Amino acid sequence: MKTILITGGTGFLGSNLCIRLINEGHKVICVDNNYTGTLDNVASIKSHPNFTFIEHDITQPLNIDASIDQIYNLACPASPVHYQHKAALATINTCVQGAINMLELAKAKGARILQTSTSEVYGEPLEHPQTESYRGNVNPIGIRACYDEGKRLAETLFFEYYRNFNLDIKVVRIFNTYGPNMNPDDGRVVSNFICQAIRGTDITMYGDGSQTRSFCYVDDLIEVIVRMMNSQSGFTGPVNIGNPVEFTIKELAEKVIAMTGTKSKLIHEPLPQDDPTQRRPDISLAKAKLGWEPKVALAEGLAKTIEYFKSVQG
Ligand code: UDP
Asked: Is residue 99 predicted with pLDDT exceeding 90?
């Protein structure tokens, strides 16, 4: 049994990770300020004796008495509508000061620490699919930069703590992920399309829908995050994690419409600034080093996610 601290623990990925680690018999300390997360996501484990929730914003230092074996740093709003505009400065602070505070905690506790970085570090990618050695094409002054550059600087911080203090770090770059415990108002494409289809409101396709993404079901993603955390010492990453099967956003909309049998209309809205044209992970490194590849195809994952949203939306 390990003591494991998870920042962003009431969010979409964090809550799925908390549940998985509690079920494996670990002690879990869940830290979140509930900006985009909610305690509803951890309702099934809230009273478990091995589960503790601490309401805390990681931009402030965190003091914990208990010894800690592992820290997963997931805290940060991850949907463009939640991390941009008025939230932009808080996003930068969460990525940067939040990372420093968690790295300091790991250093003080002698804990291993994993950073959830993002495919956004590649920006508008000129290399396709993206390998970890690709250095990206981020617009440093655009509206996505608060997240993209924040996450890039967090990676830099992790590697400086590794070089300066020999801290035991792990870095994964997460590509688009979906599944149960996404917030219906999250604003990202899978949750938007499904919730719009269930409610019978217009399905909002930004641009002409020719932009691509590669969608990973949450269970596959949690599996590889845990494998990475427990991988051999000295293997730092960064490692791309995601599903390498690529779809256009128009194809996704058509699938959701067909699977829900909705009468919703597909409408076009303007493409947001700096919205990447294409995205697909090269996952050769994850396959070779972690023996992992996704198992859940989009149709199967969408069916489970549609069921989930039907259950929470009544
Ligand atoms: N998108 C869309 N309709 C929506 C929400 C998003 O067409 O209601 C598009 C968005 O422009 C982008 C893609 O879907 O091209 C994925 O967007 P999301 O916000 O899910 O993730 P990210 O852009 O961070 O990959």
From this structure: yes
pLDDT of residue 85: 87
**Does 203 map to a domain?**
no
- What is the distance between the terminal CA atoms of the chain, rounded to a whole angstrom? 38
Using the predicted structure, report yes or no on whether residue 163 has a pLDDT greater than 70.
yes
Cα separation, 295 vs 313, in Å, equals 28
Does 249 contact ligand 1 (Cβ within 6 A)?
Answer: yes
Residue 169 belongs to a domain with what CATH number? 3.40.50.720
Q: How far is ligand 1, taken at its centre, from the CA of residue 94, in Å?
A: 22
**129 with 280: CB under 8 angstroms?**
yes
Structure confidence at residue 314 (pLDDT): 62
Calculate mean pLDDT across residues 236-246. 98
- On whether residue 305 sits in a domain, the answer given is no
Catalytic residues: 147
- Provide the token pair at 30: 């869940």
Q: Can you read off the two tokens belonging to residue 60?
A: 């402030």
Q: What is the pLDDT of residues 31-62, one digit of tens each?
A: 999 999 999 999 999 999 999 999 999 999 99
Q: Among 143, 213, 266, 273, which residue has the most ligand 1 atoms within 8 Å of its CB, making it the best to mutate?
A: 213
Distance (Å) from CA 162 to ligand 1 centroid: 34
Candidates 128, 175, 291, 160; CA nearest to 236 is 160
What is the domain range of residue 27? 3-178+217-242+280-295
| pTM of the predicted structure, to 2 decimals | 0.97
Q: How many CB atoms lie under 10 A from the CB of residue 63?
A: 8
* Total domains in the fold of the chain: 1
Q: Is residue 34 part of a domain?
A: yes
Collect all residues with Cβ–Cβ distance below 8 Å to 308 and sequence separation of at least 6: 179, 180, 181
In DSSP terms, which residues pair with 55 in a beta bridge? 32
Q: Which amino acid is at 301?
A: G
- Condensed to tens digits (0 to 9), the pLDDT of residues 58-97 reads 999 999 999 999 999 999 999 999 998 899 999 999 999 9
Is residue 313 domain-resident? no
